[in-house]
Amino acid sequence: MKHNKSIATLLLIAAVMTTAQPLRAEEIAPATSEPITLDEALRMTREHNPRALQAVEEVKAADAQVTRGRSGYFPHLSASAGYRYLDPVAEANFGGATIQFVPNDNYDARVTAEMMLYDFGRTGRTVDLAKAGRNSAGIRQEITLRDLSLATIRAFYSVLFLQEAVSVQQKEIDALQKNLDHMQKRYDEGAATRFDLLTTQVRLAAAGNRKIDYETQLHNQEIALRRLCGLDEQAPLNLSGSFDITVADKDANRLAAAALEQRPELMLARENLKAASYKKSLAGKEFLPKIVGSASWGTANGYMPDIDKMRTNVAAGVELQVPIFDGFGRSAALREAAAMKRSAEQQQLDTEQMAQAEIRQSLNDLKSSEQKIETTCLQVSQADLAAQHARIRYDNGLATTLDLLDAEAALAEAELAHLQARYEYVLNAYDVRRASGDLIAQKQEKGS
Fold this sequence. Notes:
Distance between the termini: 67 Å
Structural class: alpha+beta
Shape: elongated
Strand order of the largest sheet: 1-4-5-6
CATH architecture: Up-down Bundle
Number of helices: 9
Order of helices and strands: HHHEEEEHHHHEEHH
Number of domains: 1
Helix content: 55-70%
Number of strands: 6
C-alpha cells in the first residue's frame, strides 16, 4: 500500500511539473501575446536597448561633471596623522644638563581646510565647460534615440514588406502549381508536349527559390527587430501596421528652416562651438595668478618646555601663486584651444550645409516613391487583367503555355514592384522627418 502511495505521489508531482512548464515559457516573452504596433516597438527600443541605456548613463556622468566643476567654489577638507622618528636631534648643554629641543618621536594629527579665494574666473569657466558637456550628452542621447527609432522603423517595415512579399510569391507559386497540375493532365492525355511540362516546372522552381530568398531576409530582419526591441530570440513577432502614411509638409524651405532650428546634429555643433570657446577662455586664464587660503587645526608634540607633550595648534594663511614658466605648456594649450574653436566653427557650417542637402535629397526620394506608387498601381491593374485574359485564352486553346506563364509572372512582378514602392515611400517619409529634425522617438504619428 505504501508503495502504491509513493508511485501516485511521484505521478502527481510529474503532472504538476509538466503543466507548470508552459507557464514559465509564457513569462519569458509576455509582450508577444498581442500584436506589436510601431509605437510599442519604439517604446521597447527606448526602454530596453543597451545603446539607449548607455546614452542615459552618459548623461548622468556628464551631470556629475558639472557637480565636480562646482566643487571649486567650496573649501576642501582633509585630515592627516603621522609619526616621524628623528636621530640625532638638536640638543644643548647648560650647566652640565643636556636640554633636547626636538623629540626623537614626533606625532602630528590635524584637519586642514583649503579654498580658492580668487582665480580670475577659472572655476566659473570650468563649470561652463562642464555644462556644455552635459548639454552635449543630452543631445547625443537624443541622436541615439532617434537613430535607434529609425533602425526600429526600418526593421519593422522590412518585416511587414517581406511578409507581404512572401505572400505574393506564394500566390504565384499556387498559380504555377495549378498550371502544372493542369499541364500534367494534358501531358498525360497527349495534348501537351514534354517541353511545356518542363517549362512550367522550371518556372515553379524559380518562384520557389525567390520565396526562399524572401523568407531568409524576413528571418534576418526579425532577428534585427528582436535585438532592437530587447525581445527574446525565440519570441514570435506578431506585427500590426500598414504602409498607409502621409507626409504633412513637403516644402523644402520650411523643412530646411526647421532643420536649422531643431536638428540635433546642429544643436550638438553649436554646443561644441560653445565648449571650444570656453576652453579657449580657460586656457587664457591659466596665465593669471591664484589666491589660495588655508587653515588647519591639530595636535602635535615638540613644543618647549615639555617636548613630549601633545599640544593643540592652529595655522592659517593666504598664498599667492603666480605662474612664471611652465615649459611653454600654457601657450601651447592656448593655441590648441584657438585651433579647436576654429575647427568647431567649420563643423557647424558643414553640419548646416549637410542638413539642408539632406532635406532636398529626402524630398526628391519621396517624390520618386510617390510616382512609383502611381505607375506600379497601374501596372498591377493591367497585369491582373492580362493574366485573366491569358487564363481564358489558354483554357480555350488560344494561348500557349509560355503566354500563360509570362502573364502570371508579370502579375507577380507588378504586385511586388507596387509593394516595393509603398515600402520605399514609408522609409523615405521617415527620412524626411529625420532630416528636418523631427525626433521620431518623441513625436511618433498615431496609427503609423
